[in-house]
Model the fold of this input.
Amino acid sequence: MDNESLLNALKHVKYPGYTRDIVSFGLVREARFDKGHATIALSLATTDPDIAAQLRTDIEKTLHHSGIPKVTVDIAINAPVAAPTPTPINGVRHIIAIASGKGGVGKSTLATNLACALAAQPGRAGRIGLLDSDIYGPSIPLMMGLAERPEVEGEHLLPPERFGVKTMSLGLLIDADAPVIWRGPMVQKALRQFTTHVAWGELDILLADLPPGTGDAHLALIQATPVDGAVIITTPQRAATTVAQRGAMLFAQTNIPLLGVIENMSGPPFGTGGGEATARALKTEFLGHIPLDATLRQSGDQGIPLVHSAPESPLSRKIIQIALRILEKTALTP
Done:
């Protein structure tokens, strides 16, 4: 048996409580075979001694079964680093994440329209915020018709206000044609700056438009500040709903309640019903269908969200109804 065969044998050892093996988890630091003797070195991030004991037993049993008479297992325990304690943003009552599993579902379009719909309610103008957390593809400035750089007051950025919504985005800080080539730590630092060094003032709700999927931006926001709830955006087709369900599990695992699911681009050619099925699977509320309509896209391209330019249109009424439901679920009824 060579070292590669030894590593393949270790792929049959599952991490306790998971269906995934210790090799794919990246726990094997060394796997060496020499003259009938296998030496295995693991590195674990856990404080549970039972896990190390179980892995030792499973490795020895698996390799003995493969015909290796002598097995030495060395396990290094590295206690996990505690995640930073989320810090509330001064003056912000509720933070709600707007998330999706995949891109191209119209999440940012709905986030801008929901923010404007909330700001249009009595007494809410200037008390709604919109944080563009999509570091790699910030599109909120275009949809909100914002181009000017934020002013600076001391160590804080002043978010520009338009349609009664205070907005912050990396797109307001870089040139429009500048590519964003950042690694994870830089993304996390940027999101922390947006929560700690932006003078949001007194807000009832801050909507955080997250990038698709789950990644550095999601973890940075959750670790930086308490998130009160999440709204999941999906399109009807299975390719979107399946990924949306997986993405939503991040919030369940971090004890962030799901406020509901919105089905965007509903109707031909994508069909309908996927949003309701996703809500049932996630055991949360279905907030409504938003039909596929060119006017919603056109208004975003023009920098004037539809709920502001045509608040009485049937499509705007649907979005406003969902915004009112979000107010109800955050105990901020008008």
The longest strand covers residues 92-100. The chain has a mean pLDDT of 89.
